[in-house]
# Entry
Amino acid sequence: MEKTLADVIGDYNFFLEDLFSKISEIELNVEKYELDHICYRVQSINEYKSKKEELSHFGELLIESMVNGRLISTFKLIEPIAFKNRKIFLIELPSPKSMHSYANGLEHVEFVTKEPLQKIVDRYPQYSFEVFGIHKKINADITLKLGEYCIRFHNQNLEDVIKLEKNMSNRR
# Structure
């Protein structure tokens, strides 16, 4: 029997329902933001290689690049994940960082906004956003942890960032 995407990354509908329930509980309005991609974490480099191979059956590997000392692969799905009124085309698969331990499974989603990231932080002072990535030159971000999950906000979608990265590497 052929594997489904859910066989490979788990019950993404449950993950998204659970995550959006947590977002709703804290009354953070994300309706106007594009849900750019979801992230699947692995515990070991062997699991990274295996998951990368499995995901290649469901989409195109857009890039595998070194980010903060570890490889991250991004896949564009042939058939997007449909969740409510959203279509999610990208899955991010980071290899584990040394000295960090992650559970295997879906961990976070990333939203794209056109507004300055600091405005989101200022609008919700009651939340402890991680802002260490807010001043990055490429793909600045803020993060909010919600239990075992987290959400991130960016000003550029991941596919555009990948195109930018590829253009920059072609110039070298």
Summary: The mean pLDDT is 92. The first strand starts at residue 34 and ends at 41. The longest helix spans residues 12-25. The beta strands are 34-41, 59-67, 70-83, 86-94, 105-112, 141-146, 149-154.
